[in-house]
Design goal:
There is one protein chain. The protein is of the alpha/beta class and about 160 residues long. It has six helices and eight strands. Helix 1 links the parallel strand 1 and strand 2. The longest helix is centred in the middle third of the chain and has 25 residues.
Length: about 160
């Protein structure tokens, strides 16, 4: 059975917590299920990135979305690495890899479709896909973000 697990910023807020999440994900797989994991940025990371942007001055909405999406990229890479270190097989996937298509409403984009073969290949190969929540891409390939709580929306999609 396919089970979607979503982990927020507090759950992946430190290396120790990431290792704990990795153990939970592997336990789900050992129980005979296929986990698909969606993660947020580490606790406080989005706020830290926003603070950096505010020090620069006005930041174009497109550039702000590129910046903010980087928080989730860190989390997926660390969690996939922690699962591998614990003996599992995981792959980190970003919005463009799973083709999470959105409109072009920066910082509050709406998901239109997910049509990437990477996700299917990972599941068919018994890998655990670790998906960056909160982010998407528009029809022109621009990074978009789904707004606060967007990782929850990603998990439901």
């Amino acid at each position: 059975m396919l089970i979607v697990q979503k982990y927020g910023g507090t759950s992946v807020g430190s290396v120790e917590r990431i290792k704990s999440v990795a153990s939970r994900v592997l336990a789900t797989q050992r129980a005979g299920h296929q986990p698909v994991v969606v993660v947020s940025a580490m606790a406080g990371e989005t706020n830290r990135l926003l603070a950096l942007a505010s020090e620069i001055g006005p930041v174009a909405p497109r550039e702000l979305d590129v910046l903010l999406a980087s928080g989730e990229q860190v989390s997926v890479a660390l969690l996939a690495s922690a699962i591998r270190a614990a003996g599992g097989d995981a792959v980190s996937l970003l919005a463009h890899q799973i083709r999470m298509r959105t409109d072009s409403s920066y910082s509050q984009a709406r998901i239109h479709a997910i049509d990437g073969p990477w996700l299917d290949r990972a599941i068919e190969g018994a890998q655990i896909p670790i998906i960056a929540g909160f982010q998407g891409m528009d029809a022109d390939g621009n990074v978009t973000t789904l707004g606060r709580g967007g990782s929850d929306t990603s998990a439901v999609a």
